[in-house]
């Protein structure tokens, strides 16, 4: 990819690079910029992203540096610091450079202005021949054992080495290590670091750190989130897109989660948070239990009369489940409960009723979501068993090409399952309206077709009925594929035309 | 423990030879990395007249990492909590190996002169310092009299 193209990409996104923070605002910002689904369809094949190895990322960094330096002609190490300060957004950097005060430009970037010659005094100091004291180790050393950055704070080589190593290894700093002098914010450039640090492991760590910060702050790059994968994906413009890493992992470029069409990043994030935290547990407790009025132990009433005896052996308090006051004046039947306050009890019942129904609603979607997730895990096993079946079939006079339909069927099954799984997240936040009912019909249709396909693949294939089953499987997966795309298209259309109302 | 680095030996020597007014730091006789520190409350501060005991420890990787300093004498200050822990930038992210015990203790003394309730460690103290500075200063004086003045 040549550098001209890169420039075009930057033009498409006006704030090319912002910190890839995790706050929801980012997601929201991205959604505003989403092209309509018609456009999405049109350029679906034009979204040309690239998977980069670590070396290619380093190379890409150099290309950006060289590219900006065609204009600015600054020393490469300084350019790298400047670009990092501007989150690798060359447009912003150039704008600021030509726009404002040059002195301030370098000061803000914590770099000594390379156009200013170092003051005479410092130059003289460096050519002095008598020993200097290192302010860190208090040793008196000849000038050639001392070094410093352009800010002229000089320390001995071994203190510098130790300082940098501490910053890199213990504190995990890369491009943001500043001069060792107190109160000096001038940054140490990468060439100086590699010159001063000899330990290969520390150097490797440093390289990793600066590469990582490059990827993290560059909005057009994202590390593949798969465990132990070292590839990063580079896209022409940042938005919620399905990207496939070289390691085989498929994910959403915008949020890094598994590809989650039709639900949007923002809702998925909310959903995952909801599922992860304990709020549903406490909702269940609120909806289904009361506390003993005396010892506050949590009680679930699973039947029986309203005369409660606390099971806590230290408490054994007898009370009325309805009014929660002591049982004594109630006599033998709770209908005599004279403390029963109609209004209070009603509002308590309503509140509990509300909690119960919202919990039931959540569990409805959650169970279906988890069910598809679970099934997807089994589907991975299915790949293995299908492979075996394909081999069997080839021994039954079928050619290699003739048995490929099985693998394709499992591929489609997995894709449908994944889509279905995320349709439940989408549906959970969706308010009922006519379009949402159409969506639910689509969902139902896809779900039952997917289950049938799954059944065929799980059970029905034996060597006797090959030809017959092949036809059935092919018909079914084509149907699933079609229904899946109909469902997604309908949701996208809804995004573009604002059909969807949300519950939150 | 490995032998004492030259830096610590030299620094201790200089600290003994040229003491800072109002600050006294003496290494423990059994542990050259542990210092018994006394800081007198600065004039024109609510801590005036007080003698504050602190402990200072130089960790293994000193001077690459900052010394650990803690007030032993109770003190009413928005940036010092009940355990005597100090919220001071040069003890944390602004630490530089070119700083020394001497400079750190001077910074702590300066913190006594200029409390910073906007960056609090002791929340209740900082809160009062902001809404009713006069009362907070009165409290600080009282604590100084009660805990930091020897009869």
Descriptive overview:
The complex is a heterodimer of chains A (504) and B (151). Chain A is 56% helix and 7% strand. Chain A is mainly alpha-helical. Among the domains of chain A are: 120-217, Zinc/RING finger domain, C3HC4 (zinc finger) (Herpes Virus-1, 2-Layer Sandwich), CATH 3.30.40; 292-340, no CATH class; 356-497, Four Helix Bundle (Hemerythrin (Met), subunit A) (Up-down Bundle). In chain A, the strands form 6 sheets. Chain A has a 3-stranded antiparallel sheet with strand order 1-7-6. In chain A, strand 10 and strand 11 form a beta hairpin. The longest helix of chain A is centred in the last third of the chain and has 54 residues, at 342-395. Residues 1-43 of chain A have low confidence and may be disordered. In chain B, 32% of the residues are buried. Chain B is α+β, with helices and mostly antiparallel strands and 151 residues long. Chain B starts with 5 loop residues before the first helix and ends with a helix. In chain B, helix 3 packs across helix 4 (133-147). Chain B has helices at residues 6-17, 101-113, 123-131, 133-147, and strands at residues 23-27, 34-40, 51-57, 68-71. Chain B has one domain: Ubiquitin Conjugating Enzyme, CATH 3.10.110. In chain B, strand 1 and strand 2 form a beta hairpin. Classes of the chains: A mainly alpha (504), B alpha+beta (151). The A-B interface holds A 135-139, 153, 155, 159, 162-163, 166, 170, 180-184 and B 5-7, 10-11, 61, 63-65, 90, 94, 96-99, 103.
């Amino acid at each position: 990819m040549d550098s001209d193209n890169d420039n075009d990409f930057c033009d498409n996104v006006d704030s090319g690079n912002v910190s890839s923070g995790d706050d929801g605002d980012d997601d929201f910002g991205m959604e505003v910029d989403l092209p309509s689904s018609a456009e999405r369809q049109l350029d679906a094949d034009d979204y040309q992203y690239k998977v980069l190895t670590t070396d290619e990322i380093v190379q890409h960094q150099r290309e950006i540096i060289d590219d900006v330096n065609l204009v600015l002609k600054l020393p490469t190490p300084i350019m790298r610091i400047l670009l990092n300060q501007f989150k690798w957004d060359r447009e912003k950097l150039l704008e600021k450079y030509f726009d404002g005060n040059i002195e301030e430009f370098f000061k803000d970037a914590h770099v000594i202005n390379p156009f200013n010659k170092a003051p005479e005094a410092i130059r003289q100091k460096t050519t002095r021949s008598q020993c200097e004291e290192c302010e860190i180790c208090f040793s008196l050393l000849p000038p050639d054992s001392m070094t410093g950055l352009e800010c002229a704070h000089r320390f001995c080589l071994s203190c510098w080495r130790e300082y940098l190593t501490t910053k890199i290894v213990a504190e995990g700093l890369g491009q943001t290590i500043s001069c060792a002098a107190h109160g000096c914010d001038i940054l140490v450039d990468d060439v100086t670091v590699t010159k001063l640090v000899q330990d290969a492991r520390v150097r490797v760590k440093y390289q990793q750190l600066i590469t990582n910060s490059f990827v993290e702050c560059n909005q057009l790059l994202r590390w593949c989130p798969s465990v132990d994968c070292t590839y990063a994906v580079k896209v022409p413009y940042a938005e919620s897109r399905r990207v496939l890493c070289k390691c085989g992992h498929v994910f959403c470029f915008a949020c890094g989660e598994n590809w989650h069409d039709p639900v949007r990043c923002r809702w998925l994030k909310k959903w995952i948070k909801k599922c992860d935290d304990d709020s549903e547990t406490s909702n269940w407790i609120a909806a289904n239990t009361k506390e003993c009025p005396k010892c506050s132990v949590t009680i679930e009433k699973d039947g029986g009369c309203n005369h409660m005896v606390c099971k806590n052996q230290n408490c054994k308090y007898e009370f009325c489940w309805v009014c929660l006051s002591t049982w004594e004046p109630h006599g033998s039947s709770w209908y005599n409960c004279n403390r029963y306050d109609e209004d209070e009890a009603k509002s308590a019942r309503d509140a509990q009723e509300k909690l119960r129904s919202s919990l039931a609603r959540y569990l409805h979607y959650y169970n279906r979501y988890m069910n598809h997730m679970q099934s997807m895990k089994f589907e991975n096993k299915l790949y293995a068993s299908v492979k075996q079946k394909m081999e069997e079939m080839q021994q039954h006079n079928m050619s290699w090409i003739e048995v490929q339909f099985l693998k394709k069927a499992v591929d489609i099954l997995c894709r449908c399952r994944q889509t279905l799984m995320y349709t439940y997240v989408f549906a959970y936040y969706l308010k009922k309206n006519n379009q949402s009912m159409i969506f639910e019909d689509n969902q139902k249709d896809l779900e039952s077709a997917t289950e049938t396909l799954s059944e065929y693949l799980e059970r029905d294939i034996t060597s006797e009925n090959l030809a017959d089953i092949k036809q059935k499987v092919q018909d079914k997966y084509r149907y699933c594929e079609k229904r899946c795309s109909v469902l997604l298209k309908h949701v996208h259309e809804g995004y573009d035309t604002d059909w969807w109302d949300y519950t939150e | 423990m490995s032998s004492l680095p030259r830096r610590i030996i030299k620094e201790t020597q200089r600290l003994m030879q040229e003491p800072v007014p109002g600050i006294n730091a003496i290494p423990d006789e059994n542990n050259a990395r542990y210092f018994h520190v006394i800081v007198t409350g600065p004039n024109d501060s609510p801590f005036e007249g007080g003698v504050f005991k602190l402990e200072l420890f130089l960790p293994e990787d000193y001077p690459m990492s900052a010394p650990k300093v803690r007030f032993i004498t109770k003190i009413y200050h928005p940036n010092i909590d009940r355990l005597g822990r100090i919220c001071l930038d040069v003890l944390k992210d602004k630490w530089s190996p070119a700083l020394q015990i001497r400079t750190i203790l001077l910074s702590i003394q300066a913190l006594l002169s200029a409390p910073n309730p906007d960056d609090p460690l002791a929340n209740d103290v900082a809160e009062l310092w902001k809404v009713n500075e006069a009362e907070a200063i009165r409290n600080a004086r009282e604590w100084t009299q009660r805990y930091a003045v020897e009869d």
